[in-house]
Every structure is written in C-alpha cells, then in structure tokens.
Amino acid sequence: MCGIVGFINKEKRFDVLNNMLLIQNYRGPDDYGLYFDNGVHLGHNRLSILDLSDAGHQPFISEDENYVIVYNGEVYNFKQIRKELEKLGERFKSNSDTEVILKSYIHWGIEKSIEKFRGMFAFAIYDKLNKKIILVRDRAGVKPLYYYIDGNEFVFASELKSICQYPFFKKELNKNILPYYFQFGYIPAPFSIYKNCYKLEPGHYLEYDLNNNRYHITKYWDIDNCYLQEKIDANEKEILNDLENILEESFNLRMIADVPVGVFLSGGIDSSLVTAILSKKYKLNTFTIGFDDKRYDEASHAKIVANYFKTNHNELYINETMMLKKIEKLPYYYDEPFGDSSSIPTMLVSELAKKQVTVSLSADGGDEIFCGYSKYFALNKINRLFSNKLKKKFIKLSVNLLEENIVEKLNELLPSKIKQRNIKDKFNKFKRAINSNSFEDMFLEATSYSDKNIVRSILNIDINKKAFNKFKFLPQLSLLENLMRIDYKTFLVDDVLVKVDRATMSVSLEGREPLLDHKISEYLGKIPIELKYKNNQGKYLAKQILYKYIPKEIIDKPKSGFQIPLEKWIKEDLKLLVNHYISKEKIDKEIFNIDEILQIKKEVFNGKVKNLSLLWFVLMYQMWKEKWFE
C-alpha cells in the first residue's frame, strides 16, 4: 500500500512534491521517491509489501527511460503475467508487481493490460513517446485516486490533502454536492468537496494529452455488465462448487506478501467465510474489537469462530474514552466531510492489527455481491405487497402512525435471533421509503440517513438534481439485482471502501478486500437471483458454502457490524463539542439555515433522534471545514 502524487509544471518543483508526499506519509513510510522530466512531476510514498529491496523503489523507470510509473495497490496475479512477458523476451530487474504493470502496458497497451490484472490499484504511467499521462483505478474502487483540472493545471494524488499542497490549487467549496453529503454521509464519485477536483471512478482510466492539455476518460469495467450476462444454466450443487473454487482462488491470491498477513474477523458471514476457506491452508492471525457496552459487542461471536478455526486470535475491548479520542483525528485522515461513524472502531481494529501484521484482509462487499442487506429484503416484500392497492394503503397508514420510540420498545420484545440493531434509524429510513412515489426513490430513501426535505430546510443551497443520478434502475434486471448493483457503485465505493482505506492507512496497514475480486463479481452476476435470495434468506449461497466448514448455530445470528453509541455520545460526552461547532457563532452561515440547525440540535438533545445522523454529519462538516478550509 502506498501513496502517489503528480502534477505538471514547467519549473522543477521538488519542494512541492515533497510537501504533497509528506502530508500523506503514513500511506507509505518505508521509502519515497521523486521524478521530474519536461514538466512532469511524479512522487511516491512506499509501504513495502512485495519485493522489500531497493529494486521495488518508485517512481519506477523502464530501461529505455521512455515510461515511468507510480503505483498504489497490489496486482495479485503478477507472477503469472510476468511469465507471459518473459516468454515474449522480457527480463526483469525486480520481483515487484510494479515492473509487471509497466511492462504489460508497454507490450499490450492499457486496456489489454488491465484485463489481465486481478487486484486493487491506482496508478499513473508517464508515456514519453506518446506524450501522455494515464491514470487508472481498479474495478471495485478499493484504492482512491483524485485529480484536479483547472485550465492548464493538472494534479493528481491518492488523497485530497496532497492536492491541497499544490500552490496553484484553488480551494473552492463544491456547494452543489453538499446536499448529497448531508443525505448519504459521504460525497459520491466522481465529485469531491472541492470545485474542479474529482475522484476517478472505479473501472475507469484517464488519459491526459501533454500536447494540448486535454483529457479523456474511458470506462473499462462496470458491475452492470456482470448482471447483464446470460444466466448460468446449472444446478445449485454445480454452482456452489464452482463458486467455492473461485472464492478459494481469490482469497489465496490475497495472501501473497513478503510481510505478515492477518484477517479482520467480526464473526459475521463474510469474515467467517474468508477465515474458514483460508484456514485450510494458513495459520491465520485474526483481529476483532469488543465493546464494554454489550449492545454493540460482537467480539464474543468472533472469538467462537476464531477458536473453531484455531486462529491466532487477538481482541481488544474498547471503551468510550478510546473512541472519543479518535473523533478529533477524523477530519485529518478523512480529508473531506465523511459521516460514517463506524470509521472510529475501524481505526481502532486497524491499530490492533498493525501491532502484529502489515497486511490485513477485510471482508467488505459481501452484502452487495451476495445479497445481504436487510433493506433489500424489506423493499422486495414491499414491492410484492404494493401490487395490491388496498394492502399498500394499509401499510402506509400503519407505518405513518408509528413512532420510533414505540418501534424500539417492540423490537426489545423480539427474540434475540431476529432482534434488529440500530432499529430507530432503520425504521426512519423505512418510513421515508414507503412514502416515496417510485421504487428508485424508495431505494434512495432507504439508503439515505437523512430526509432530503429536512436536508433542504437546513441548507441555503439550491439542489442540483442532475448532479448525481446513479440510482437509475435497469429494466432488464430484477428489483434485487438493481439494488445490489447500485449499492456496489455508490455506498460500497464512497462509504465502505473509503472508511477502510483511510482507517488502515492511518496506521500504515495495507487493507485487502478478498470478496471484491472481479472474477467473483462476474461469476455471481451470472447466477439467477433466486439462488442468492432463497427461502426468504439473504446470502444464501455464501451460507451454504460456510456451512460446510462450521456448524450453523455458530454463525446464524443477527447481522451487526460496527456500531457506536452515537445517541448517548451526542447527548452526553460530545455535548460540549456539538455546542462548540454547532452554534450561532461557529456555524457556516453561508451554507446553513442556522435556526433550522439549532432546532434539530435541541430536539436531539431532548431525545428525538430522527435527525441524529444529520446532526453528526453537520458536526463532521464543521470540524472538517475548520481543519482544511479556514
């Protein structure tokens, strides 16, 4: 795992490159490199994972000096690709995947090269012969890559804070995208918090022509195409066997490293599946965190799984004091407004893992590829029920009469196996969803943490409805497939993967995502939805494979995930912080309607948590703005 930076300036400015690298040094503290040629500046922070020798130093320059690469990530099948290149007469001076990527480009061009790569990557190639720079981001978007274009200025980096170090960068707030941040808790790609500054989207590459300062972006992979394939005509047993083989191959590829590797283990389906399959071949180091508050604790589940597979298990029980200390660091590492509060425990489990390993596997993406989110099942049931107009009217009336506190009390009466975590938030999303006019809007509401009408009321900004339109359904696909593919392209990329990348990188730990191998997505896309959601059961296929390795009773439990006691914090431990940043004196009056914000704060302090997430998002925005914009 590393950090990359680059820009174009006729003057040699190693001082600027140094500043850009220094501010993201935690991404790669083992080494750094600078390069300049004819106005092109490239820089690299290195976290040594493969080929720890000086031969793996970057920027990496071809023997003829016509091609240069800076690269962040891993191409796990680089050894197979290297053999192909050696048959073509290539000789290698390192054992790194970096050299394989560059020589693949030289031999096959960019698209044919990417087709061969299995992994996570964000890289830039300077092609002197064709006078262009090519930026590439992996298919799932595991690795971040930002770029800034304004006139003849062209800058790119792994993180926004590095781009901010460029002296000619104009730090202008991208107000049009803020409503989406306050609705979702993240800023969706391709946008960033700054004007003229963008995220290169997953599955895309950008070619910048140095002759005329123009650029072109090409999409080379899309999850949609996985679902649009012809479905497999095979029985369940055959599909499970083929899927297990693909999973095993993909997981084993991610154990390739010249340093120790571990696994984040929550005890849920996805991380247990990764642990189960890898335990056949490896003695694993597993890591989890527990909470003193048992309502949020899942460490006991993880320990049972770890004991079953005889892993070298490590756990850390964290208290509120430990988590609260992390809040002040969030604006630095998540260098645009970011509202996912589970980033705090993710940073803590990363710290725990870093004490023993340099690489850790994180089982993200399982809900999106295996059909696991409860909102999918709820919307699927609503879809069936709403076909009857009388049932539709009755459901809407019943839900609209309920209040969140009543729902919470009813939830407490349920058996533990079906009791829901974070029920107030889920209910409010569900309530907004069933009052929507279309299923696209319904899913948008089920995915949003804040009511868009309330977001409008707190902002002095006109919402550009055309700014973000990734919630469009494909008519050829089922409802569930549409929900999965949209989450894969939005929430997974700009929330989950951002959270894990910044949390792991904050302690110089490489995070790998074994479930996001594109071979898995392409195979699962061909499987009929009836096998992914079967017998009213999500993650059906994943569970059937996992049941081969571990008794059902160990893993059949309510879905949890990292949760923090946000309601308690804001009303107690964080009250002073909230009052400091969300006050008439401190609030950004150009952006916010101060009276509406203060009213929401008052309601949350008095126990009405309908807008709890929104208040947290405002706090994160205010803290970010003080850190980076004032």
From TrEMBL:
<keyword id="KW-0067">ATP-binding</keyword>
<dbReference type="InterPro" id="IPR051786">
    <property type="entry name" value="ASN_synthetase/amidase"/>
</dbReference>
<comment type="pathway">
    <text>Amino-acid biosynthesis; L-asparagine biosynthesis; L-asparagine from L-aspartate (L-Gln route): step 1/1.</text>
</comment>
<dbReference type="Pfam" id="PF13522">
    <property type="entry name" value="GATase_6"/>
</dbReference>
<dbReference type="GO" id="GO:0004066">
    <property type="term" value="F:asparagine synthase (glutamine-hydrolyzing) activity"/>
</dbReference>
<dbReference type="GO" id="GO:0005524">
    <property type="term" value="F:ATP binding"/>
</dbReference>
<feature type="binding site">
    <location>
        <position position="289"/>
    </location>
    <ligand>
        <name>ATP</name>
    </ligand>
</feature>
<dbReference type="Pfam" id="PF00733">
    <property type="entry name" value="Asn_synthase"/>
</dbReference>
<comment type="similarity">
    <text>Belongs to the asparagine synthetase family.</text>
</comment>
<protein>
    <recommendedName>
        <fullName>asparagine synthase (glutamine-hydrolyzing)</fullName>
        <ecNumber>6.3.5.4</ecNumber>
    </recommendedName>
</protein>
<dbReference type="InterPro" id="IPR006426">
    <property type="entry name" value="Asn_synth_AEB"/>
</dbReference>
<feature type="active site" description="For GATase activity">
    <location>
        <position position="2"/>
    </location>
</feature>
<dbReference type="GO" id="GO:0005829">
    <property type="term" value="C:cytosol"/>
</dbReference>
<dbReference type="InterPro" id="IPR014729">
    <property type="entry name" value="Rossmann-like_a/b/a_fold"/>
</dbReference>
<keyword id="KW-0061">Asparagine biosynthesis</keyword>
<dbReference type="InterPro" id="IPR033738">
    <property type="entry name" value="AsnB_N"/>
</dbReference>
<keyword id="KW-0028">Amino-acid biosynthesis</keyword>
<dbReference type="InterPro" id="IPR001962">
    <property type="entry name" value="Asn_synthase"/>
</dbReference>
<feature type="domain" description="Glutamine amidotransferase type-2">
    <location>
        <begin position="2"/>
        <end position="211"/>
    </location>
</feature>
<dbReference type="InterPro" id="IPR029055">
    <property type="entry name" value="Ntn_hydrolases_N"/>
</dbReference>
<keyword id="KW-0547">Nucleotide-binding</keyword>
<keyword id="KW-0315">Glutamine amidotransferase</keyword>
<feature type="binding site">
    <location>
        <position position="97"/>
    </location>
    <ligand>
        <name>L-glutamine</name>
    </ligand>
</feature>
<dbReference type="GO" id="GO:0006529">
    <property type="term" value="P:asparagine biosynthetic process"/>
</dbReference>
<feature type="site" description="Important for beta-aspartyl-AMP intermediate formation">
    <location>
        <position position="364"/>
    </location>
</feature>
<dbReference type="InterPro" id="IPR017932">
    <property type="entry name" value="GATase_2_dom"/>
</dbReference>
